Amino acid sequence: MRFFKIFLTLKSDFQKINQQLKIFFVAFLFSFIIFSGLTNLIFNLIKIQQQKKILKQELIFWKDIVSRHPEYPDGWAKLATIWYNLRRYELARLAIEKARKLDPIRSELRLLEERVKNF
Prior knowledge:
Elements: H1 2-68, H2 73-85, H3 89-102, H4 107-117
């Protein structure tokens, strides 16, 4: 009988430990998922900031080119693309108009013009 009581006590203790392990495992898994998501979010934010920095450098370059060569349609097309990528849609429209006047049949401008119309 005493052995049976010890067995029941051990079984009860084991069930408590098992329940605690389950809770720990779920908490650990939840924490891991949250941490992974935050890490991914931070990585993506850093990547976006780097891309914006590159676009702004390109913007400075192409603004300079267009200011010195206002009849250069490739410069205006590139500016339109950069403005679009920076989500400055009105400026992208203006650059598209200037590029269109200089090169009315440019196919990439048609595609960009369609995208900009949605904003």
